[in-house]
Structure formats: C-alpha cells, structure tokens
Amino acid sequence: MNNLLRLIGNRLIALPIMVLGVTFLVFFLMSFSPIDPAYSALGEGASQEALNAYREANGLNDPWIVQYGSFLVNLLQGDLGTYGANQSSVADAVATALPITLQLTFIGLIIAVVLATILGVVSALYRDRWPDQVIRVISIICIATPSFWLAVLLILLFSSTLHVLPASGPLPAFGEDPAGYIRRMAMPAFALSLPVVGQLTRVIRTAMVEELDKDYVRTAIGAGIPKGIVVARNVLRNALITPVTVLGLRIGYLIGGAVVIEVIFNLPGMGMTILQGVQQNYPTLVQGVSLVVALTFIIINIVVDMLYILINPRIRTV
Questions:
Q1: Which residues are listed as membrane-spanning (predicted)?
Q2: What is the pLDDT of residues 300-312, one digit of tens each?
Q3: Distance from the CA of 199 to the CA of which of 18, 44, 109, 176 falls in 20 to 30 A?
Q4: Of 163, 176, 310, 316, nearest to 241 (Cα)?
C-alpha cells in the first residue's frame, strides 16, 4: 500500500509541473502570432488611439514575461481571456465546445475497445489459422487508414449515396433525441476509432498469446476447467494490463483526432472553435482552446497511469 501511495503521489506531483510547461509552451508559441489582438478585438477600422488604449488596458505593451505572469494569474482564476469585438469569454466558448469533443472521444474509445477486444481475443484463440490471418489483414488496413480520409468515404457512402446518416446539422441532446444523437455521432465516432482498433487489436492479440502459453493455463485446462472459463476469468484479465497502458497513449490520439473529425462533420466542438479562431483572427481563442486540449490530454494520461498502477499488482510491489 505504501508503494501504491508513493507512485500515485509521484504522478500527482508531476501534474502541476507538466501543466506549467504546457501553459508556457502555448503562450510562448502564440506570442509569435503576427495577428495583433487589438486589431482582432476592435477591427481594422479602429483608430490608432483606440488601438493604443486597448493595448495599454490589456497589458499588451508589457514585457513578454509580465504578460505570461498575468496570464497565469488569470488562468488560476478560471479566466482564459476574451475575443472578438463583443469581448466574448474564451472560457464560455470552451465550456460549450469541450463536452462535445469529450463525448466524441468517449464514444470512439468505447467502439475501439469493444471491437479491438473481440478481434484480439479471437485472433489469439485461433492463432496461425485463417481467423487470425483475416484479423491480421483487417488490423493492418485499420492502422493504415487515416481517420480524415475514412470520414470522407463514410460521408460519400452513408450520407450522399444511401442518405441514411447525416453528415452535418445540429447535434441533438441525447436525453431529448437518443436516436438522432446516435445517428449524428455514428460516422465521426467510427472514423475516429478505426485506426485505434487496428493498433489495439495487435496489442491484445500479442498479450493474449503470451498469457495462453503460460503454465497456469495448461494446468487449469488439464485439471478439467473449461477453456472458456479459464480465458474469461484469468487469461483475459491478466492480458489486458498491457493494453491499458497503450490505450492511455491512444486517448491522446483520439482527442487530437476528434478536433479534425469535428471540422469534417461540422460538430461544434473544440476543433470547430479553433477553426473559428483561426479564420476570424482570434489568437486568444486559439490559445485558450489549445491549452485546454493539452491539459485534458495530460490529465487523462495521469488518470490512466494511476489506473494501470491499481490493476497491476506487480507495479504496486516495486
């Protein structure tokens, strides 16, 4: 238990350090933007006096390190800044867009885990036979298929040709219209998850094969315990320890991929918000959304690391 608490404590200590590093990197990179926040906020028709007054009021004339310090202070208070002529809140835009991105990521994750587990287990149980060979080809195709290209193909097939799934339009709330929500999310979630399905299938297959070759499996089957029970209760549980670690890294891919998929399917998530910031010259909006996406990735990976520690007794005894 002491080792477990120590390992969890190390992850929690690393969290604020990584968060600080991300804020510094995002702020530093955005400082090279050629876009003047004063012009973005007031418009190109604003007078020079108004522009100077805006820069002075918002600290844009201060040294870079002073601006970064003010940014951190505001960030600790939940203030990500404002954008546009109406001085809209970046935090409000993130609060609206982030849930949609997380929903898309979660649905894609569920699809990836379910399909990869089924394919990986079947491939391991029938190793070197035709089901294993077929699943191996399928997994390679999945890995080699870019999500954005698959998204375009899905739109052409299911939306433009068959007219069974919408490629754009409003996203209904799940509680109000479950069928409409599922139809709207089906194509983007599947396009997002397919490359992860291929990668995770190979990892699960390898872990299952290694576990099936261990002595305790042969002993249990030799003692008369049905193979299906041994696989379900012991082999699968032990074999999934390694895929959990790989899955933690793939969650970051899903979040980043969701940002692109949202633009293709016109979902009002973080991707569309970033695109809006780029198209309309709102650097503070791009900065705030990019920062939240990066922090979300870090926090999720910390949680996955802690979950890995909890489910792997060998780590807790190190």
A1: 12-32, 106-126, 138-165, 185-204, 240-265, 285-311
A2: 777 777 776 666 6
A3: 18
A4: 310
